[in-house]
Amino acid sequence: MIMNLKNKKNLLLIFSSFVILLLFIASIYLLFTNASLSKELSSTKSALVQKEVENTNLNRSLRASMELAESKSAQLKATQEELAQIGKELEESQAKLENTREQLQNVSGELNQTAASLEQTKKTSAELKTELTDMTSSLSDRINWLKNNANMPSPSYFSDSIRGLQYSAFLNDAKHKCIVDGVVKLPCISYLMARNIPYAYLSESDDKLSSLVESIQGGGGDCEDYSLFFKALINDYKSEFKNQELSLETVTPSSSGGSYTFMTTVDGDGYWYYPNSKPQSIGVLGNANPYVICYTTTYTSNLFEGHCIVTISNANVTNISDLPLLDSSLLFEPQNGFYKGKIGQDLHLCSNGEMYCETGINSAWLVMSDDDLYMFQDGKWKSFGTYNKVAMSLKEKYLS
Questions:
Q1: Does residue 297 form part of some domain?
Q2: C-alpha–C-alpha distance, residues 384 and 141, integer Å
Q3: How many distinct structural domains can be found in the chain?
Q4: What is the span of the domain harbouring residue 340?
Q5: Which residues, including other chains, have CB under 8 Å from residue 255's CB and lie 6 or more apart?
Q6: What is the pTM of this model?
Q7: Closest by Cα among 385, 378, 394 to 319
Q8: Please, which of 79, 120, 370, 384 could form a disulfide with 150 given CB 3.0 to 4.6 Å?
């Protein structure tokens, strides 16, 4: 029993030793293991440190990349905004370009129209030039006609004809039989016109104003032709007898009886006269400016008639503004030499602004001078000379 306990103790001791040995071995193992683990841990720490460094570098690189990306993103955004603005401007430019294209098309159309208008204007200008040339030529011809008929024609116009001999006889007799004692007896001239030429009243349906040569050759004319004849003859006398004091004399009815002798024979035994009449002076030949003047005698809805006579004035009418100077001028009938009164008293001379004045009885609406014809129309006076000046001015201004 005691042996057994001793053995047990030995066994226990052995076991304990074994356990201690195991523990020692285990401690050594753990020590080696710990050393190995420490080494590995140290290596791991070094690796971790390296990784941290790499991670730090990566983070830095990442941040740099992110910053770069943010910068690029900002640049991209700015670029996108710029592109958007450029796109907007491009759209606006396209719209402007389209508008410009439309404007160019419109301008092109206008240019085509302008070219067509210019061509038409050139054509119209050429036509206007022709018309103005014709107008100025026509007006000049009419003015020259008046000038050419301001004096009596030479008998040479009727050479080798009976009419020429008759006309020459009239001119000679008129100077020797109708100018007596410083007086030009106009009734005498009227009488000799009818007797010597002979010159008679001829009604003209077309109311044509004949030249002096035409009316003398034709043996007479209407009231305008008579008036034109006397105006020319007085102009000739005014020039021929400029150094003599001669007066112009007409005849007028006399309520107190008596007679007016307008011509006598050479021997004085025979004479021609108007009974119940008396002489009426109408001015001095040297100061006399004769004008043909026409006035209204009848005006109805169906009929317009007028008559032309001669007025003697001291005024020299050269333009429309001078026409009022004819007021108070004396009048006579060239067909018989009778006194017809005074402008402003027996005839009314139309004034600018008097609408339809020409329709009034005894209203004078036409005046013929030596180089112009004045006619009252549409409430104002017009004349060949005025029209000619306007036409010449337009021709020089626009067509030269």
A1: yes
A2: 10
A3: 1
A4: 140-398
A5: 276
A6: 0.68
A7: 385
A8: 370
